[in-house]
Amino acid sequence: MYVSESVGFIISNTGRKLSQALTARFQPRDITSEQWSVLKKLAEEDGITQKELSNRIEKDPTNVTRILDQLERKGWIRRAANREDRRSFLTHITEAGRELSKELTPIEAQFVEQMLHGLSAQDVAVLRGVFKQINKNIDIRH
C-alpha cells in the first residue's frame, strides 16, 4: 500500500490542508486558524484559566501560551490575575476580540459548508462519529 493510501496520512494531510485553507481565508484579518480556535473558545467561555483552555481545545499548554501571547499583542485577549490561584491567570477576550470573533464566525461557517459540499447529512454524521471514535481511541491509548 502506498503511503498516500494510509489512513494516518489521509487524516494528517486533510487536517493540514484544512488549517492552511482556513488561515488563507483569515489572512486579511491577521489571524491563523490555530489562533482562531483559541479566540473562538474564549468567545464561548470567557475568563477561564490557561490550563482549562488547553484542556478544552485539546492543545499543548506550551502552544496555548504562545498563541495567547500573540493574541494579547494584537489586543484580542487579556490576562488577569486569578484570585483563587496566584500561580495562574484568567484569560479574557477583549471587545476587539469579540468583534473579530463575530466577523470570522460566518467566514468559518462558509468554509465548512464548502468543505462538506457533496456530502449528505448522513455522511457528515458518520464522519463526525468516526473522528470522535478515533479521538477516543487515541485518548485511551495515550
From TrEMBL:
Keywords: DNA-binding, Transcription, Transcription regulation. PROSITE patterns: HTH_MARR_1, HTH_MARR_2. Coiled coil: none annotated. The keyword Transcription applies. It holds the Pfam family MarR. Residues 1-136 form the HTH marR-type domain. GO terms for molecular function: DNA binding; DNA-binding transcription factor activity. This is MarR family transcriptional regulator. It comes from Paenibacillus xerothermodurans.
